[in-house]
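Aim 2 progress. For Class I SAM-dependent methyltransferase, the working sequence is reproduced below.
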Amino acid sequence: MSTAHHLVATKATTGTRSVPAASDRSWSADPYADAVRSGRGPLFLSRGDGWLLPLEVERWCARADEADLDVLRRCEGSVLDVGCGPGRLVAELAERGVTALGIDVSEVAVARTVGLGGRALHRSVFEPVPDEGRWGTALLVDGNVGIGGDPRALLARVHRLLAPGGLLIAETVPVDVDERVHVQVTDARGGTSAPFPWARLGTAALLRHARPLGWRAVDQWVAGGRCFVALRSRRSRRSRSRSRSAEPPNSTALISSQRARKPSGDSPVTDR
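Predicted structure tokens for this construct:
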């Protein structure tokens, strides 16, 4: 265990920790880790046909902007930032005295979050998370609705993490898209990660996937050219109690660690 990761583990909420699989570690190794350390790109998601999606490293590593602050004003209760990246949102919430935790599969990103004064854990959302079923708000911003390439699996998992009636705030792509891709993280110097699955969703697609899983839309808005949706869990305290009684011990253990994070919601650059 590195010094940075030991610091993260001792400062964050305790809980079972599993080592992410290879596709998760693509966010921990070069070139993503180098970009997070330096706070700048260029960095892209790419696939074999020349499709490129610019990643907004500078924005992720800066302080929360006005669009971010608008999101944070809408949060309720304790906040779980899924795929927290370099930690700007968790750090801002901590400054405001809000109970918040970031989780991310990049050890470098988690260490940076802790360095900013936030609480964070190095793990996938599909691994055990502290206070499961008790979070007031979950965040899936900066394209993180794409984690794992399976929106329904991700939305179902987040539903279980929230308290009954909890709030999910998700950022969507500002075009009508619903696609699954296999991508790699690349930089301008030829650095490339291992390939991993990802998804890109516009608002309509997100709502289609969410409704059958017990979510209802409560708001939609655009800020700073970015699109957001607020969803509320329909689950009641009674149904949560029944669900827990039917679950075997450790039922929230790792479902799949083949999850990665963090493209921007911007439209891709194509035909490089």
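Residues 151-161 form the longest helix (11 residues). This observation will guide construct design in the next reporting period.
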